[in-house]
Amino acid sequence: MKTSPISRRGFLVGGAAAAILDPCKSALLGQSPTGLPVEERDLSTLVDELASGKVTSRQLVQAYLDRIELIDRKGPALNSVIEVNPEAVAIADQLDRERKEKGARGPLHGIPILIKDNIDTADKMSSTAGSLALLGSPKPTKDAWIVQRLRRAGAVILGKTNLSEWANARSTKSTSGWSGRGGLTKNPHALDRNPSGSSSGSAVAVAASLCAAAVGTETDGSILSPAAHNGVVGFKPTVGLVSRSGIIPIAYSQDTAGPMARTVRDAALLLGGMVGMDPAEKTDLLASRPAALPTDYTRELKPDALRGVRLGVAKNYLDFHEKVDPILTKAFELLREHGAVLVETTDLPKGGRWGGAEVTVLQYEMKAGLNAYLAGLGPASPVKTVEDVIAFNKKNADRELRYFGQEFLEEVASKGGLDSQEYQKALARCRSVTREKGIDRVMDKLGLDAIVGPCSGPAGLTNLISGDSSSGGYDLISLAAVAGYPSISVPAGIVNGLPVAIMFAGRAWTEATLLRIAYAFEQATKARSAPKYLPTVSGK
Questions:
Q1: Pairing state of beta strands 156-161 and 112-116?
Q2: Which residue from 173, 228, 294, 474 puts its CA 20 to 30 A from 53's CA?
Q3: Domain of 96?
Q4: Sign of CA dihedral 155, 57, 69, 38
Q5: Active site residue 116
């Protein structure tokens, strides 16, 4: 679902934030049972340390579990992890034995990864999309395709992250980061700030070093926006590059999973473990999928990759926040200094051109997709249709509807089938405006390698009464999402203690190009800042 951009009212920074968070910090400083510090340890470093024998997977898993207990459950109580995997330590032990006896499966062997709670796992964890309606359903009998890929690569599924319930597709007045099952996730840079959604838990967990990296999902903005608001890297691949099988759906024409990490290299490393051709995958973009795609995206990363790159600056998307615009201007200057050729354009369409059609598409596709998913849970499931979910929420209104309603879900239930003329017309408009008349046309006309622009404004105050409100800067995220094209969010600076990001978008299947550009920008700026007030764990 389209994440709700957040307002920029009343920043809580400096002394005010310190007054709230420092007592937590002083109470929690100390050594974890493993004695292993993991905060701000990038995935690439952990891969090397596992390979050298400096650490074991069991030590890493236990260290992250300790940190989740200290920071997510107690202390600041970020509430980003909805459930930990009770088998994680045992899985890590098995992978340590395998490494010793046979060698590593690959770079992700033994690496602890968190995944969003709308991704199926056939284990002792639940898959609920944050909804209490699914908490009593039978557990999946099959891992989602991307979970199969990650397990095959040797990753340890450490647990599941909280999210905006039903991936923010329940109400038009929702509060991002809240779910009936998981409660409210908090932004680690300032606890009264919203983490954005719907992959709020994944973004917060990465920012707070509760995992090596995480997986989020996006329909429209649900990877890039929370990544931006929490100061991490979020990558949304081309729809169809990563399988959607086993992911609780919203819209098959836009849904995708993607990596969330503290660096571009880490995102590229995790993406490589997720990619694979699923025979069940269906998307119109598959017709243009190249026969050969990278299996190791980290090979594409070079710090001098900006030299000669042509970037289209989405000029008509700027001027939405007086403190964000200078950061973007500085970012553009830096891109030029490192050899990029920037071409300004005002030809990219804005959200008003496709917004109404997109909502129609999401509602039709969500009804079809969610009904099919729920039916697949079997006769023992208490909910088998969208209407069942609506009825459950009404019956449990004190827990599910206490902050906002379900009017979007009710609209979903009212729609017909995918053969509807209304749906077909809306889908055609979305594709035409965002692809042929949008990204493709502008990139062809200007000879561009990618498009660059704002990702979103700084995180606003969480408001459970009125819900999210917009600070602008969202059009480029949505343009790429509706087109089904790849995009990446990279930290670019700080506004009043809160992260601000820049983003790059491109044509279908240009993941390698975007990662190269984003990596070179990241290396030139080193703009990411870890949350200032989180406790640290001492150790050797």
A1: parallel
A2: 294
A3: 46-278+293-538
A4: negative
A5: yes
